[in-house]
Structures are given as C-alpha cells and as structure tokens.
Specification:
Blueprint: E1 2-3, E2 15-18, H1 22-35, E3 46-76, E4 83-84, H2 88-101, H3 108-117, E5 131-134, E6 140-147, E7 156-158, E8 167-169, E9 178-180, E10 189-192, E11 195-201, E12 210-212, E13 221-223, E14 232-234, E15 243-259, H4 267-275, E16 285-289, H5 292-304, H6 311-317, E17 322-340, E18 343-350, E19 355-357, H7 362-366, H8 368-378, H9 384-391, H10 395-406, H11 409-419, H12 426-443, H13 445-468, H14 471-476, H15 482-519, H16 534-552, H17 563-571
Parallel strand pairs: 1-16, 4-6
Antiparallel strand pairs: 2-3, 3-15, 3-17, 5-15, 6-15, 7-14, 8-13, 9-12, 10-11, 16-17, 17-18, 18-19
C-alpha cells in the first residue's frame, strides 16, 4: 500500500473502469493450461475462445467510531497509578469530562488512524466490520481509597483454625493426651516369649493399653501451622495493607465499519470480495488517502449528501466521535472462456493475482475414462491390476491412488483437492478416493487369503509341537507355580497370533508396493494395508488350533494336558 497517487480518484466518484493489461489474461490462461498436464491432454489442447476483463477503480472507507467501556473493580492496597476522587459520582463525572475532551484533542484523529493503519489489514476489508481496536493511550482510571472493613484497617485478622489461640487440638490423640499402645494394640496383654499360649502384661504400657502422646507431649494441643502460633493471619481482603481501592476504569476503543460501493460492483466481484474478506488487501491495489485536504473535502461531500442513512452523517448527528480512513482502490477482474476437446468451459478471474474462481469442473470430464477403469478395478470387473494401471495413466487419478495407499481416506481426499484445487469437483475427488480404496483392497485380497491359510497351518504345527511333545515340559518344568504355566501358554497364543497378523500384512503390503511402484518409479512408503476380515479369520484360526492341540493332549498317552485345562474340564458339569 502507498499514499495517494498524483492522479487521485475524485472523492465523489463511484466506479471508474480502466483497460486491463493483456498479461492479466495470459497469466490466468497459462494456469489453466498447466492443470490439464498428465491427464492425457497437453497444454496446447486448451484453446482460448473469449476473454473480457476490466480494472475497477473506486473509493472505499472505514469509519472509526470511538466507543467507551466502563468497569468498577476492587483492588487490595492503595492503587496509586489512578487519579484519586472522593466519590463514585465524582469518578463518573471525571470520565464523562475525559470523553468529551477527546473532541478537542489535537492529535486524536491522527493517533486513531495510525492505530488502524498499523494493523496488517490497514483497516481495509469486510472482515473489519464491528472490529474493536483498543486505544490504550486513551485509557483513564480513577480511584477511591477506603480503609479495609474486614480487618478494621489493621492488616491482620484472627486466625480461624485456632480461633486466635495459636494452637489447635492435637490431631493424633484428639486432645486426650494418650494414644493406643502399638505393642499390644490396646489389648494390655501380650504373649510370653517362647510360650505363645501364656499371656503377660504388656511391658510398654504396663497393662494400661495406652501410652502418652508424643506429638503433643501429653498436652493435648499442638502449634497452629496456619498462623505459626501467632494467633493472627494476613487479611485476605486488603492483603495486609489495611487499605482497599475502588477503581473506576474507562477504556476507549475504535469500532470499525467498512463501506464500499457494493451495489455498483459486478455481482461476481462483490461476491469474491466477501469470500476473501480476510485477505482482501492482497487482491486489490489499495492507496490510503492521508492528506488533510482530501480528508476535509471528503467530510464536506458527506455532509452535503441528502441520504439520511449516510453512516458518517448519522454518527455525527448522534454525537459520536468518528474518523474516516479513505482508500483509493484498484481491482482487476475478468471472464475467460476456453475449449478442451471441443467442449467449452468458463472461469472468473479476480484480483491482481488473477485468482481463478467459479472454475468449471473440466477435470471431471478429462478423467472420465480413467475413472471408469478405476471403477472396474474397484468392482472386480476384468483384471484389477491392469485396470488400475490404465486408470493411473491420468495424473489426477494416479495422485488419488497414491494418496489412498499412503494416508487415511480423510487425509487422502484433502491431499487430492490440494493437488488439484481447480477444475475437480468435490464429488469427483470423493469418488476417486473411495474407488481407489476398494481397488487397493482387491489388489491385496489374494495375498491376505494366502497369508491367512499359511498362518493357520503354522499355528497347527506350532501348537501341536508345543503341547504334544516334551517341548512344553522342558520349558516349564523348572517353574513350580502352575499359574505361571497358564500365563506362559497365553503369551505364546498372543505372540503367535500377532506374528501371524504381521505376516499377512507384510504379504499384502508387498503386493501394494508392487502396484504403487509401477505407478510411480520412485520408491514411496505405503501405509499399512487394511486387513479387513482377514484379521478375524487369523484370530479364529489361531484360537482353534490352540484349543485343538490342548484337547488332543488329553487323548495322547505321551502328552500331558496343561494343569489349567485339566482343572477347567473337571469344573465343567459333563
């Protein structure tokens, strides 16, 4: 942003239309051409059909209206940084006078404007409506000193736990000055050494059942820790200062309201301004009018307007203190029409960066054939691998497949939209990710099935060797605790099941990497493939093989069934 140019826009003008630079069109058209790359089309296949663009120049302003907020607070001690007054009424009068005095403050308008202009958005934009900008330099505080009523201006109060005595009842003996004898537990008698059947008098309490309390030295009281035996503590109200301060604060803020000739702008321009309100200053060339002559002229023009709803006039009539920030705005825009494969598309260009908006979903049409191949792969029509490779010939679909293989479905969709921000509809992006997920599951279906079968056979061999041969006895023979035997069996079952799942997942991931590797020559790390029902089949196979081997150990003479299983069978009502 810079100051007003030499040829400033007349302040009473609405909108001026200027010719647009041809490079504006070229920049946008090149962006569109690049979007078709990799989707079986070349940039040269995009043909420009029509372009219409203009540069709008118009005035806008932000109205800075001063508003005040008042609050009353109680603070401990003497708040010396505020101006002293005698009564609350006096504080209100002082605040009223301070606000009225702002009208005559020589540098007030300059300070308020500078505060807004120091913001990143310079106060420009629809997002600034009803934004409150703090003006700490205009803050006023007044105070009334009052002697603390809680402590009667002493700064201390009587200690509540000890009632001012400096001591409390002993927490151990409860004031009885004695505690039960720990040696005899209060029974007065203990067993004679060497003869447990004979009782003798407790030698510690001498048959009394109690001993003197050592915590309070048999006084029944201990020192109060709260007040350190002084009997008084610091007053919580004044924090020991003996004074309280009633503070009256008046804070001044500037409420911002942005005005621009919305009704005179093209609809798409006005809509785009509202959609980009948070960074509108990045899309328009904005010159801030700072000289006093132009500001005075603007105020004179506003005062002459017949419209009673004029915001500046209305604020002035209501007695508000307000200041304008004037902007000279230059904003280019355009419409571009282009054809791909003899089909026409439309795009709207906004701002000095030629941001493409209202873009027709041309990528949906370009990748239609690839999407059909991806759907065939997802629905098991034809060769899954070949269909997936054919779909991957389209850059956008290939990105969707790779993102699905390396991320969660939610993240994959976000990445796909980020890689194709224009020309791809939300529905198409969702469909690509969903079909890619199903297709990749089909790629790993066979490895998952084979892995489950191999894991099941491995479980049978492992558990039969463990329970039907001396292996288990050799491992657990030196452990006398039968409960630990059961724990060891459970650990073996869990470890075998986990290794089986890892094995199935490894086989599926190898198939997945092979497919992704053909889509992308560079090695990438794929996410762990989803096992689906294979994980439940694996758990079922592991448990079945385990129980079958345990049961077989009961019927084979050379084998010994586990103790926990024998106890379980005996407990069953068979």
């Amino acid at each position: 942003m810079t100051d007003t140019p030499e040829n400033a826009l007349p302040l009473d003008a609405q909108i001026h239309e200027l010719k647009i630079d041809p490079e504006y069109k070229d920049q946008a058209f090149e962006t569109i051409r690049n979007l078709v790359k990799g989707n079986k089309y070349k940039p040269e296949d995009v043909k420009l059909e029509a372009f219409e663009g203009k540069v709008l120049r118009f005035s806008a302003y932000t109205l800075m209206t001063l508003v005040f907020e008042r609050e009353k607070s109680l603070k401990p001690g003497r708040y010396e940084s505020a101006k002293k007054v005698e009564t609350e009424e006096s504080a209100n009068i002082e605040m009223d006078n301070a606000y009225k005095a702002l009208e005559n403050k020589a540098d007030l308008e300059r300070n308020v404007r500078e505060t807004a202009l120091n913001r990143k958005d310079k106060g420009f934009g629809i997002q600034t409506d009803n934004t409150y900008v703090p003006l700490p330099a205009l803050k006023k505080e007044f105070v009334i000193f009052e002697a603390c009523r809680t402590c009667k201006a002493k700064g201390t109060i009587q200690c509540l736990p000890c009632s001012g005595n400096g001591r409390i009842v002993c927490t151990r003996c409860k004031g009885t000055r004695r505690t039960p004898c720990k040696h005899c537990g209060g029974a007065r008698m203990v067993s004679m050494p060497g003869d447990a059947n004979r009782k003798i008098q407790c030698p510690i309490c001498h048959g009394q059942g109690f001993v003197g309390c050592i915590l309070c030295n048999q006084t029944g009281y201990i020192p109060c820790k709260v007040c350190s035996s002084r009997g008084f503590t610091q007053c919580p109200s004044c924090q020991g200062t003996a004074w309280n301060s009633h503070v009256f604060t008046q804070e001044i803020q500037a409420r911002t309201n942005f005005f621009y000739p919305k009704e005179n702008l093209p609809d798409k321009v006005a809509t785009s301004m509202e959609e980009r309100n948070s960074d509108l200053s990045e899309h328009a060339i904005i010159r801030i009018i700072t000289d006093n002559m132009n500001l005075a002229q603007w105020k004179k023009i506003q005062a002459s307007l017949p419209d009673t709803d004029n915001p500046f006039n209305k604020a002035m009539k209501e007695g508000d203190i307000c200041f304008p920030i004037l902007y000279d705005v230059t904003l280019p825009y355009g419409h571009i029409e282009y054809a791909i494969n003899d089909k026409s598309y439309y795009t709207f260009l906004f701002g000095q960066k030629a941001v493409l908006t209202h873009v027709s979903p041309f990528l949906d049409d370009l990748i239609a054939n690839g999407l059909r191949k991806l759907k065939d792969a997802a629905e098991l029509r034809g060769n899954v691998h070949e269909n997936l490779m054919a779909a991957g010939e389209y850059r956008t679909i290939k990105e969707g497949i790779v993102f699905t293989a390396t991320s969660s479905l939610k993240k994959a969709r976000v990445k796909l939209k980020s890689a194709n921000p224009l020309g791809l509809s939300d529905n198409a992006a969702t469909e690509i990710i969903s079909l890619s997920d199903h297709a990749l599951k089909n790629i790993t279906k066979k490895p998952r099935m084979i892995g489950t079968i191999i894991a099941g056979l491995s479980y049978a061999a492992l558990f039969c060797a463990y329970f039907l041969t001396p292996i288990r006895e050799n491992i657990l023979g030196n452990i006398p605790n039968s409960m630990l035997h059961g724990l060891a069996d459970a650990v073996l079952l869990g470890a075998a099941t986990y290794i089986g799942i890892i094995g199935i997942q490894s086989g599926a991931q190898n198939a997945l990497r092979k497919t992704i590797g053909m889509l992308l020559p560079n090695k990438i790390k794929t996410a762990a493939p989803k096992l689906g029902g294979a994980i439940y089949w694996n758990i079922g196979a592991s448990g079945t093989a385990f129980l079958a081997a345990v049961e077989a150990s009961r019927h084979i003479a050379e084998a010994t069934p586990p103790e926990w299983y024998a106890a379980l069978v005996n407990a069953l009502p068979i």
